Amino acid sequence: MPEDAGQLLGIMSSISDLFGGKLPIQDLYGPEGSHIYNNMMGDDRAEVDDFIRIAKGHPGPLLELAAGNGRTTLPLLEAGFQVTGLDSSPHMLQRLADKLREPKWEKYTGKLDTVESDMSDFSLGRKYGLVVLGMGTVWMLDESQRASLFRCVREHLTDDGRFLVTLPELPALSEDGTPLETRHVFIGQDSTTPVLCIMTEYFDQQIGKRLMCILAQRPENGAVGESTIFAHWNHLLYPAMLEKEVESAGLRVISQTEATATRVTTIVDRGRRRWVFEIGR
After folding, report:
1. 57, 164, 278, 279 — which has fewest CB within 10 A?
2. Cα distance between residue 206 and residue 113, in whole Å
């Protein structure tokens, strides 16, 4: 069950009320949600080309945090890097293992090690020339967890190594703190059949959080069948905050560049920017 389950906000709260509060709420990165997330992202290269461009000047080995379904991992393997993929969700790591059995990727099996661990508290006993964290995943952590993440990264980074992290920024968030909600509709796929997905993001500056929800509805004989809400809470973080926090951990921001737009980000990133931070010791 996701953090703050039952405390839905915005249109998802209204939809839950419409169904009498009986719609099941599951973690977006759980057994079923991970299938939908995997299908939604597909082979989108959000930040991947930016990571590879920077990484070429800092040959591995490479540690990918929140490796998930391998959206970033597999292109990094294809680019010639030896990768350690770390993720706290066994379900997401299973999606990655499934992909490594596909003919296109099976030849890279020996170049990838996976670790099931928390990205804010890990100890792998080795140093890496590159550590990457994509898709604004740093939003998943609160301030104390981020401090622990940055300490762990520093401990695992070589002296001339680089930490690459992406961070979305929403200029549309109003100065008076009024919540902002975005909505997207797409056809997704769970573990069995196609499903109609309504994705919402609710940004609340007052509590410093973003709630991402996907209402998945399975069609059955021309009618709406089983419906489930997949949800996950994130913690808002702004570029200036990120820079101060990494400096507190003994790291420094070397560059901040805007990420190359992709299929998914072109649709989802309306009203926001996506930055790639290059961080060193």
Report:
1. 57
2. 40
